[in-house]
Amino acid sequence: MVVAERQKAGTFQVLVGKIDEVLQYAIGDPLRYLANWGRLYSLWPVHLETACCSVEVGAAAGSRFDIERFGTLEAFGSLRACDLIIVMGTVTRKLAPRLKLIYDQMAEPKWVIAMGACSITGGLYFDSYNVLRGIDDIIPVDVYVPGCPPRAEALIQGIVLLQEKIRRMPTLSGR
Amino acid sequence: MKMALETEYSPDADRIMAVSLGPQHPGAGHFRIRLWLDGDYVVKALPDAGYVHRGEEKMGEYRNYIQNVPHLERPVILDSSNILFAYSLGVDELMNSKIPSRGQYLRVIMSEINRIISHMYFIAIQGLFLGHTTMITWCMGDRDFWIDLGERIAGARVTFAYIIPGGVRNDIPEFAIEKGLRTCDWFEKRMDEYEKIFYDNPMVHQRSDGVGVLSREEAVAFGATGTVARASGLALDVRKDEPYSSYQDFEFKTPVLTQGDSWARAYVALLDMRESVKIIRQALKRLPQGPVRLKLGPQPRVPAGEAYSRTEAARGEMSYYIVSDGSPRPYRLKIGVPSAKNLRALPHLLRNVHVADIPVIYWSLNYWPVEADR
Amino acid sequence: MTEPTSKASEPAIPAPPQVTAPPQQAKVPSNQSSAAAPAAPNPDLDRAKDIADRITSKYPGSKLEWVKPRRLKVSVPSGMIKDVALFARDSLGFDHISTVSGVDWIAKSALEVVYFVGSTAPGQEGFVLALSERVPRDNPVVPTLIEVWMGAEYHERETHEMFGLNFQGHPDQSHLFLPEDWNDLPPLRKDYVSPGR
What we know:
The complex is a heterotrimer. By secondary structure, chain A is mainly α. Chain A has helices at residues 2-40, 54-61, 96-105, 117-121, 152-167; strands at residues 84-88, 111-115, 143-145. Chain A is built from 5 helices and 3 strands. A 3-stranded parallel sheet of chain A has the order 1-2-3. In chain A, α4 links the parallel β2 (111-115) and β3. The longest helix of chain A is centred in the first third of the chain and has 39 residues, at 2-40. Chain A starts with a helix and ends in an 8-residue tail after the last helix. Chain B has a single domain (56-373), classed as Cytochrome-c3 Hydrogenase, chain B. Helices cover 47% and strands 12% of the residues of chain B. The longest helix of chain B is centred in the first third of the chain and has 29 residues, at 101-129. Chain C is of the alpha/beta class. Chain C has a domain at 43-168: 2-Layer Sandwich (Beta Polymerase, domain 2), CATH 3.30.460.80. Helix content of chain C is 19%, strand content 23%. In chain C, strands 1-2-5-4-3 form a 5-stranded mixed sheet. Chain C is globular. The chains are: A mainly alpha, B alpha+beta, C alpha/beta. At the B-C interface, β1, α1, α8, α10 and β6 of B face β1, β3, β4 and α3 of C.
């Protein structure tokens, strides 16, 4: 008897699961696509310069490369409105807690681009006493842009790759 | 005259508000200013540096004299040749090497190109902080033409690593000479436009005239150098004071202004660039023939001794104190960077000013935190 | 955050120095060593030697380490650096602090502090005086020279954190470049080994 009841409940649950799936395909996917499409071309980067790669970010924002063509706005001051950190180079021991703090203050969904050899592995400063060997230990990184410093074109390519990633993002909430 | 950090305010604890400006804010990355505010006025400001301290001086002791070249130019990526210039002069002095004259001229050319690249960035951000968007768009775009020229000569985009101990890394290609002369001609006309749209702009005058005035005596006492010192009437220019690397062959002036305010500090940069263009043109036209560098091994042995070498970088006096004990690696490598020399002026200038004037004053000091922290 | 603290007093700006011009005629220094062959007369070298003579004759304990055109390094015995610095600023025209550095002579068990001072006096612009003092490594205490050159404040702070030199009388010796939680030897000492090595 108990078994039969359990089977009944099981069937009901399976049915509910199916409805969920159907709804997911019928409403969820287009909604996710729409939301991700909306996020794609309005990336707001945090204005956090960590080291010398910021010069190339400045050049990329300048009139020759003009990064805004690709849907990334210029660096912005308010963290609550931002959804992208471009870590521009070396992260030192003094800056690392601040970087984590800044990342935690941003609203979901948020993405991270590690720009330059220093933020990926430590780069030239592998034997420095004050430099982190890559930022992966502090914050999750979505796109790596290698170079020392990367050219402005490389940064643009990184942004385009990130947009490709956002387009395929599986969930609506971001993570 | 008495100069002190304490203010005329009686610090009433209830009125004073402590604010941290940085390290993440639109004004200054990788740098923090601790502010104590009374309403809209800054009572006291203390700089908090060190967010980009990478231990270059310790790293220098682990590498030999040639391996030191690439990491030493990173602190001043805007001005990468000038920081290497001082280093190379110091090593040359210790090794007692005589640089061929073509190498000396190429060093001067690259150094002046870098001065323009650095000043263009400086003016661009100064325009941004003043709310003058045209200036950042123009300057960032025009700066790329000078970077192009440097790229034609050295091969990299901003980190040229061109000036090395013993000369320069490679010869200048023939077409780069022509391109350089054309860039000079174009840029001189362009600078007239900057003057019209930025320096003669009433809005710029209103926001930066008389803001953050540094007198000549204060500039001497704080040890200010470069654009900061020259805007305050202190005619310091290492290129004139001790002409290194055949700077005595060129005709140029040291621009000196006496106002000492933010506008003058930005205007000195433009006058500097005019002189740089003159030097580049003279050097390109009179480029002597011959080799460009001496033959040094991959691990040159430097005789024991001490050297203190100086160059005039874009921001001011760049100095190296190299102590060698005869081994392939330096015993001590001290980098005296102009930003660190001008830092002492910041807490002095940020007193009794409006909060809105902080970015203007801060950036007019031409302070680059990566350089100051090393 | 703490509330603003006011410092007790900060030194007044020194008056512009009256530089007594050196004798114009090229003076042949008596202590010319055998290394220098009779080369072309170098007025910059002669003037640097002249400045060195004036310091070493006034302060007998001080010693000329080396002299080059426009450069000279003078080491002074302990306890005398402030007097020499005041003399250099007020009488010799070295009023523009360039930088402050330290050197760790671990083999001699000494720490050296070096002040590099430029000059704004007319005719003496390119000259740099290096004033140095050696202190024992286990008790590295030197007087601060902020009263002499105000711009030395941050340079001394940096030298303090990098070498562990204590500048007596310095208003604030907290960390400038190192992280706040730095809990190790001062990094530029020779016995500190970088973790990557």
